[in-house]
Each structure stands twice: as C-alpha cells, then as structure tokens.
Input
Amino acid sequence: MTKVLTLEQLKKKSEKRLTGLDPVFKLVLDKLIERCYARGVWVLITQGLRTYAEQDALYAQGRTKPGQVITKARGGYSNHNFGFAADFALLLRDGRTVSWDTLRDDDKDSLPDWSEVVEEAKGLGLEWGGDWRTFKDMPHLQMVFGITTSQFRAGKRPSQTQLNAVLARVNELKTEDEEMTVEERAAFKALQKRVIALEAANKLAKVPAWAEQACINAKAVGVLDTANDGSYDFYRLVTILDRAGIFKRGGIA
Output
C-alpha cells in the first residue's frame, strides 16, 4: 500500500540514528534527506554513531560469529566510532519497508534512487563508500576532513574553519532552495514527470505524409537533427514554419 509521508515524518524515522553525530555532519545529513525528498527519493539513515563494543560485534560477524563480513574495521578503526559517518538505505512507499536495492527506481525518473542519493551526498561534500577501491561500502557516507581514524583516536577533530566551510555550503544551498518549499519542489517534479509521460503518449510512430517535406526542409538548414518521435502539434508547427518560408536556404540566421 502506497503511503504519503511529509518531510517531517520522514526525518522523524532517522532521528534516533542521528543522535550523537557531530552537529555539522548531522546538519549535512538532514539536508541530504531534504534534497532527496524533493527529488522523490525517501532516504533513511540506518546507522550512525557506534561504540567500540558495537563496532567489535559487527567486526565479529562473518569471522567468529555467523553471517557475512560487513566491515573491515574493529572498534576504534571506523569513522562511525567518532560521529563522522553514517549508513543509509531507501524507504519504500509503504513507509515501513527498507531497501538496499541500488537499482530501484521508485520515483520513476529512469535514474536509480540510490544513485540520486549519492549524487546529492557528493554535492554536499560527503564521501561515498561505493567509491572505495577495495572494500566497497555502498550504504556508507562520511565527512572526515582528511582526518584518519588513528588521528581521531588521538583526539584530533576538524578545525572551526573546516566546519564553517561546510556550514557556508549548506547555507548556500538553502538560499538556492528558498524559491519553493521542499514539498513544492516534490510536487513540481511530479508534474514534470506527468508532462513527460503525456508527451511520450502523444508521440507519433512516424512522420505524417503531409509533414514529410517540411521536415526535410527543416533538416536541410540544420533546424532539425531528426524528425522522428514528434507529436502531432510538433509536426503541425514545422509545417506552418515551412509554408511561411522559414526553412528556405539562407533564411535561418
């Protein structure tokens, strides 16, 4: 059953997993949820801060405990242990089911929802575990400012200058988004998809006989690359322009 969630209801589902994260990193994740929601993609944060003990328990899986290996990091060797990493998944339209399907396209825009999340994450300055060369971690996102786990263990943290740069970027995005609310952008995107669907439905299988010469003339002067897949209105417009002499050689500036 399809369910409609408001942005605030969606954010509420990730609230507990955001607890304990660095405040600036948490703000970036909050912005990620917003921007993905505006694209019709529901993101859920499934993992956030972990204690060393919790990390060791995950490390044991597939080694000394049943299950598949899901991490290469012991306690103290994961950025999750310091509040600068999180894992995400997709929330399906029933509002309950969680998916890690990287090819799923619930918003029907011919782009995998997972890829849309990654695109938005990178735009916010986040590092994606799917880009790692050895142990690819597809749900993993982090923002570590070049700090290693050994440096984190020693107490090093991002400088205020580094954090301010991230805040400035988030504020810049807020300014860009002010023209429409998140809900309005989501509705606008749905309208765009509807228009595309209607256009596709109105495409003709071939160029009508009465428009063939007009299309040939338009292609001859470089106005059209192809005359295929047009709608009735498209061919009608091309024909009107041709009869008005617009496509005569030398008539196009």
